[in-house]
Write a structure and sequence with these properties.
The protein has six helices and eleven strands. By secondary structure, the chain is of the alpha/beta class. It has one domain: Rossmann fold (3-Layer(aba) Sandwich), CATH 3.40.50.10900. The strands form two sheets. The protein has a nine-stranded mixed β-sheet with strand order 1-3-6-7-2-8-11-9-10, sandwiched between helices. A two-stranded antiparallel ribbon has the order 4-5.
């Protein structure tokens, strides 16, 4: 394999679909949200993407079965109150080099050009480095109208605050050059574990923007597991701090 390959499973016709990208990133926030959408809305896979720019490895899944490094495209027709078509880009990896990221993103956009995509949303996490009780959703967009649209849904806009690294940023930038209006939604997350709570928050905001309904019950269950894990981690941290403090006192008494 010398270049990115797009294996089409089903030839489809769509009417100006909205593209939603959510590849693995910080806290797997976007990936969890869109995987949940695909599952709950019963979207259909129509293409698989393989690339020499993916990591040189495979996953070992259940019962010892291997899984290739892959990106996948799903579609949904005439959904929601606006009877909108959608394309979802998901997968278990991104490109491992700068060149690879550009190559893969451009190849996918070139392939999707025939569907006349006018709007896209990319999803990801923004790391806080510390626990987040009620994760906020932050946004950035390719034009003023989209920024205002995000504000109307109470999404906090990022100003002069670094960049958006990886596919979530590149798809917006390259898409803008092709005339596609786009926005990135970023869920606050500690950044050091898979964060279902932030994923649920981003899914609720995205559903609002798209005027669709998605059952978040399963994701809420995973979010509750996340909350319990976080509470346990905080408890362990506090116990270690208390133990360290007591040890310091004992040492001082011994020296005195």
């Amino acid at each position: 394999m010398s270049s990115t390959e797009i294996n089409v499973i089903e030839e489809i016709e769509l009417d100006n679909p909205i593209l939603i990208e959510a590849l693995p990133g910080i806290g797997h926030v976007g990936k969890l949200a869109v995987d949940s959408m695909i599952d709950e809305l019963e979207a259909t896979k129509f293409a698989e993407i393989y690339s020499p720019y993916f990591p040189p490895q495979i996953f070992i899944g259940e019962e010892g079965m291997i899984e290739n490094m892959i990106n996948e495209l799903y579609y949904l027709k005439d959904f929601g109150e606006n009877k909108q078509d959608f394309i979802f880009l998901v997968g278990n990896t991104q490109g491992v080099s700068s060149e690879g990221q550009y190559e893969i993103c451009m190849d996918i956009l070139n392939y999707l050009e025939k569907f006349n995509i006018n709007t896209m949303y990319t999803l990801g996490g923004i790391a806080t480095g510390q626990p987040v009780e009620n994760p906020k959703i932050l946004g950035a967009a390719t034009d003023v109208e989209m920024v205002e649209f995000l504000k109307e849904s109470d999404i906090e806009i990022r100003y002069n605050d670094g960049g958006i690294i990886g596919a979530s940023g590149l798809f917006l930038g390259l898409g803008k050059r092709k005339g596609i209006v786009g926005a990135c939604l970023m869920g606050e997350t500690p950044g050091y574990f898979i964060d279902a709570e932030a994923a649920e928050a981003i899914l609720i905001k995205l559903s609002d923007l798209l005027s669709i309904e998605v059952n978040t019950e399963k994701l809420d269950e995973r979010a509750e597991e996340t909350r319990k894990m976080l509470e346990k981690a905080q408890q362990m941290e506090q116990e270690m701090m208390n133990k360290s403090s007591n040890q310091d006192v004992d040492d001082l008494r011994y020296i005195g």
